[in-house]
Specification:
binds NADP nicotinamide-adenine-dinucleotide phosphate; single chain; about 25% strand; Rossmann fold; 9-stranded mixed beta sheet; alpha/beta
């Protein structure tokens, strides 16, 4: 499967690109917004697409063209204001979904955030109230994708860490807030792409005690 990674220079993105490149079953295209990032991936033999998510849907669709699946793991990050949160985590995500449709590609994996499906419920997780713009952006990006005709999977990780992956997770429609290494999220994304049983599904994922492959298969 040829996979376009949107947010390839990000922390999950880099794990994902590296794992896809090493896999015998997949090819990868790293979508990045800066020429020096593209040069760095190219030097590692990785195909790139130079596109800014604040640009047009047509530009993103050109990058998607020829891939079998798109993974969106971009984000404006904690250091930017609400404007960039809306432009990247919400609008950038939905533009990527529209671009995927425009390029006649069906498979789309979205990295969202734990518990956001309960955004409008009173008993939602504490972090949701502390990050109001971000929470709204994540929630409505998920809803747009769920209402689309794309073959989607929504992966909702808990608090991300840079610890080495353990290969063991908990996967469920709803989990308590826990952390998870970015490397394990990247592995779960690839296993979701390889398992059509995850199409049309959304799951929370945190560190746990089940092998990632088994956790995804039995979800
Ligand atoms: N932090 C958490 O605990 C947590 C928990 C659950 C889910 N998440 C979500 O998980 C996802 C991945 O997290 P992460 O830590 O891997 O993110 P990250 O390291 O901040 O990476 C985000 C990537 O998005 C790219 N990006 C930002 N604006 C862009 C634009 N205009 N055009 C193209 N690319 C753009 C960034 O590019 P540059 O490299 O050029 O800056 C960066 O590579 C995010 O959606 C995040 O919201 C985070």
């Amino acid at each position: 499967m040829k996979v376009l990674v949107v947010g390839a220079n990000g922390q999950i993105g880099q794990h994902l690109v590296s794992k896809l490149q090493k896999s015998e079953n997949h090819d990868v295209v790293a979508m990045v917004r800066k020429k020096e990032q593209a040069d760095s991936f190219n030097q590692q033999g990785i195909e790139t697409a130079l596109v800014d998510l604040e640009g047009s849907i047509n530009d993103i669709a050109s990058a998607v063209q020829g891939s079998d699946a798109v993974v969106f793991t971009a984000g404006s990050g904690g250091a930017t204001g609400a404007d960039k949160t809306m432009l990247i985590d919400l609008d950038g995500a939905i533009k990527s979904m529209k671009a995927t449709q425009q390029a006649n590609v069906k498979r789309f994996v979205l990295v969202s955030a734990i518990g956001i499906q309960n955004y409008h419920e009173e008993n939602h997780l504490d972090w949701i109230d502390r990050s109001s713009y971000y929470s709204a952006a994540k929630y409505y990006a998920d809803v747009w994708l769920e209402n689309s005709d794309l073959d989607y999977t929504i992966v909702r990780p808990g608090g991300l860490t840079n610890e080495q992956g353990t290969g063991e997770v908990s996967v469920s429609e709803e989990l308590d807030f826990e952390k998870i290494p970015r490397e394990d999220v990247a592995s779960a994304i690839i296993l979701s792409l390889e398992n059509d049983g995850t199409i049309g599904k959304a799951f929370d994922i945190t560190s746990g005690d089940t092998a990632i492959e088994k956790a995804i298969q039995s979800f």
